[in-house]
Design a protein that fits this description.
mainly alpha, 0% strand, binds zinc ion
């Protein structure tokens, strides 16, 4: 049985610690800019989910994880 291909963003979310995730949720709830950004992202993800999942090259996954980790580290300074 072939396993369902996992999107790198989904795996990344698994890697965010619950504490940081809660902190992000709390910020978004009180920030109109991020709320708007999240709503837009949710609509984009909903559209993506409606399409078949293409294979994401390992190098692209690695770059995405590094970029998001760097952005998170920068935002916490
Ligand atoms: Zn914000």
């Amino acid at each position: 049985m072939a396993s369902e291909p996992r999107h790198p963003a989904g795996r990344l979310e698994d890697r965010i610690s619950p504490g940081i995730y809660a902190e992000m949720e709390q910020h978004v709830a009180g920030c109109p800019h991020c709320t708007s950004l999240c709503d837009s992202l949710k609509r984009t993800l909903a559209l993506c989910k409606a399409l078949p999942t293409p294979e994401v090259p390992g190098q692209v996954q690695k770059c995405l994880r590094q970029a998001v980790a760097a952005a998170l580290a920068e935002s916490r300074q």
